[in-house]
User: Which sequence fits this backbone?
């Protein structure tokens, strides 16, 4: 199959992009990495009259840290850029790890963080990592720039038509933070059947003082598991789950209704999510344990 | 819709092609440049038969528009062995020696993916190579001979870490 005909634009400035998004007529589709858009165009599940290619907007590819250590990632940064960036690996190692789990190498060389967040596949790894990390986004809208929590921009109903994701802001990891992401997928790569991400903060006495746990692929967007997180606080790093926190994990996940698809039934998906959560929690805790314990 | 002219380097030569913007890179490489070693199958990025190198990195050419190649350096299976003896890249030679392929439809994709892997700096051993090769699909062989060929090429290029026993340091 071939894509339906479209007008192709490759602007060189954000002002030009804004003009193209705001002009009268049908809204153009934005082309970032093309790894999700092109299959849709070729299958004709999407037939935009115009395509705006963001590939020539250099500032959108930047990865920087601000004066207060916040990581600022341009929407066109590719998965492979996140994997390789020394800034991302030190300030947000969970994000670098999540990027490495995406699809295949030849997809990671083109796909972008902005495209991933805009496409918002429930199984995607980056949105899950950014939920755990408490990321903000800056969005260009017809009314000007908006910055707010990713969770406030995420619901499709709340996004305005003509929104252009510009930057993702990630608070830096603390010195006593550790994180882990675990997934299972057909062929060991590609869209996750189940995926869990965890961030733990430990103290100098070997206890967990902060925890965030979230699961993807079980709901339309990544969901936090606040009861498990609460049960982990105060637990020893040497045995983070224990029987009580493990029971809370089972209970919190049993309240979900994970979807069934050709890769996993809902019950199986829930069970695998539980196993992955245990593994991710154990891995993050192990990283925080003082050496020799 | 209005055609666009795109300029890039392909297998060491400068090319300029004029295309309908909806033309994929894979289609342009095959039909306008006549380089039919790059294949099209799933059109969703899963199978890897369309893999080429763009600026040295592996890319699914079925998931790029031809106009996005502008200004880049492209290597296809026809060009990957150009600077080597008998026109075969060591990866290609190793695949030949290990009888890695049967029908050959997946072969160009595996060649380019393996070349990219071995020319990168990811630490490699047989298990890492085996896992990386799952980025490409083969319906004929069961993969063992492909893993053998790729591992032998890695050894020959000094990319195994630690080196396999018996290799001269």
Assistant:
């Amino acid at each position: 199959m071939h894509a339906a005909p479209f007008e192709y634009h490759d602007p060189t400035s954000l002002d030009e992009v804004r003009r193209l998004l705001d002009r009268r007529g049908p809204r153009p589709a934005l082309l970032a990495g093309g790894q999700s858009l092109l299959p849709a165009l070729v299958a004709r599940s999407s037939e935009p009259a115009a395509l705006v290619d963001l590939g020539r907007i250099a500032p959108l590819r930047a990865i920087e840290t601000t004066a207060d250590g916040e990581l600022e990632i341009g929407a066109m940064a590719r998965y492979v850029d996140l994997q390789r960036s020394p800034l991302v690996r030190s300030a947000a190692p969970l994000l670098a790890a999540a990027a490495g789990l995406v699809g295949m190498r030849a997809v990671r060389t083109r796909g972008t963080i902005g495209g991933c967040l805009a496409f918002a596949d429930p199984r995607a790894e980056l949105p899950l990592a950014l939920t755990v990390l408490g990321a903000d986004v800056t969005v260009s809208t017809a009314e000007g720039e908006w910055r707010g929590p990713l969770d406030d921009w995420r619901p499709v109903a709340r996004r305005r038509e003509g929104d252009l994701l510009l930057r993702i802001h990630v608070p830096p990891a603390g010195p006593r933070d550790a994180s882990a992401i675990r997934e299972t997928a057909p062929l060991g790569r590609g869209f996750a059947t189940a995926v869990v991400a965890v961030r733990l903060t430990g103290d100098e006495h070997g206890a967990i003082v902060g925890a965030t746990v979230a699961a993807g692929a079980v709901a339309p967007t990544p969901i936090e598991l606040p009861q498990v997180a609460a049960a982990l606080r105060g637990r020893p790093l040497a045995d983070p789950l224990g029987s009580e926190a493990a029971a809370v994990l089972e209970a919190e996940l049993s309240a979900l209704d994970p979807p069934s698809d050709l890769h996993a039934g809902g019950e199986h998906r829930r069970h695998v999510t539980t196993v992955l959560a245990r593994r991710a929690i154990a891995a993050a805790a192990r990283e925080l344990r003082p050496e020799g314990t | 819709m209005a055609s666009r002219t795109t300029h890039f380097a392909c297998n060491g030569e400068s090319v300029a092609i004029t295309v309908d913007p909806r033309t994929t890179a894979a289609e342009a490489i095959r039909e306008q440049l006549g380089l039919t070693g790059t294949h099209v199958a799933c059109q969703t990025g899963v199978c890897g038969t369309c893999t080429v190198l763009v600026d040295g990195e592996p890319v699914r050419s079925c998931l790029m528009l031809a106009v996005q190649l502008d200004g880049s350096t492209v290597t296809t299976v026809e060009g990957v062995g150009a600077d080597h003896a008998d026109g075969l890249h060591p990866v290609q030679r190793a695949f030949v020696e290990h009888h890695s392929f049967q029908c050959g439809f997946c072969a160009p994709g595996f060649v380019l993916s393996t070349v990219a892997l071995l020319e990168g700096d990811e630490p490699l051993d047989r298990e890492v190579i085996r896992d990386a090769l799952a980025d490409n699909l083969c319906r004929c062989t069961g993969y063992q001979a492909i893993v053998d060929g790729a591992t032998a090429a890695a050894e020959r290029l000094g990319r195994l870490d630690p080196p396999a026993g018996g290799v001269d340091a």
